[in-house]
Amino acid sequence: MGLEAAITAEGFMTTQLKRVINWGRRSSLWPMPFATACCGIELMATASSRYDLARFGAEVMRFSPRQADLMIVAGRISIKTMPVLQRIYQQMAEPKWVISMGACASTGGVFDTYAVVQGCDQFLPVDVYVPGCPPRPEQLIEGVMAIQRIIDEDGIPPKGPDGKRIPLGIALQPKRQPVPQPMPLTLN
Ligand code: SF4
User: Fold this and answer.
1) Strand pairing partners for 74?
2) Which atom of ligand 1 has the smallest separation from the CA of 36?
3) Residues 6 or more apart in contact with residue 8 via CB below 8 angstroms
4) CA distance 109 to 91
5) Neighbours of 113 (CB within 10 A)
6) Rounded distance between C-alpha atoms, residue 137 and residue 50, angstroms
7) Which residues are registered as beta bridge partners of 129?
8) Which atom of ligand 1 is nearest to the CA of 37?
9) Of ligand 1's atoms, which has the minimum distance to the CA of residue 75?
10) DSSP string, 82-104
11) What pTM, to 2 d.p., does this model score?
């Protein structure tokens, strides 16, 4: 990881304990995938060899909330599912973070119905919103990197005077530039 080059055989380096802890935390995020719909497929693709979430140390998906510290909500959440999502979030280890992936998780998407929660941020402290329907894996990776930057700077999630978690509410901007169609396309 470059440390061998930085530290020679007889050398040493000094740093702050806080920086080492933050470095460890940001390099070993363990996501809790809460995938309920098609966004979950992109979430799976993000961990695949093509996009390789392991490059960011966040590929160890845990299906046990007590081993996870990054909730990724991918897909629409129904009224019936919401208590389950909340319970899983409560059982996750501190410090913990939340990514809302895709239009459905963030706003209910096109499902403006009585059965669908119109944004999981009504019940969870969402730190990063990843736009798209579905977001591409690169965008989800950008969301993970946003969490990593916060950990680098602050270390732990902010809490209010009442002890309640303050959501960071960072909205990623789509960065993808449209490219021209590589082959002429004819429709019959
Ligand atoms: S945002 Fe789009 S891709 Fe994601 S769950 Fe909703 S409908 Fe599916």
Assistant:
1) 35, 101
2) 5
3) none
4) 27
5) 11
6) 10
7) 100, 171
8) 5
9) 5
10) HHHHHHHHHHSPSS-EEEEEHHH
11) 0.86
Q: Using the 8-state DSSP alphabet, how is residue 39 labeled?
A: H
Strands 97-101 and 31-35: unpaired
User: How far, in Å, from the CA of 4 to the mean position of ligand 1?
Assistant: 44
Query: What average pLDDT score do residues 58-62 get?
Result: 90
Nearest CA to ligand 1 atom 2: 133
Q: Given its phi and psi angles, is residue 7 left (phi above 0), alpha (psi -120 to 50 degrees) or beta? A: beta
* Alpha carbon separation from 39 to 35, 65, 72 (Å, rounded): 7, 20, 10
Q: What is the mean pLDDT of the chain?
A: 88
Degrees to nearest 5, angle at CA 43 with 39 and 45: 115
d(CA 2, CA 27): 14
Instruction: Please report the atom of ligand 1 found closest to the CA of residue 76.
Output: 5
109 lines ligand 1 (CB under 6 A): yes
43 lines ligand 1 (CB under 6 A): no
- CATH no., domain 17-171: 3.40.50.12280
Render pLDDT for 2-55 as a digit per residue (tens, 0 to 9). Answer: 667 766 666 777 778 888 889 999 999 999 999 999 999 999 999 999 999 999
C-beta 76 within 6 A of ligand 1: yes
Residue the block writes with tokens 């080492």: 20
Other residues' Cβ atoms within 10 Å of the Cβ of residue 183:
5
Place of tokens 């060899």: 49
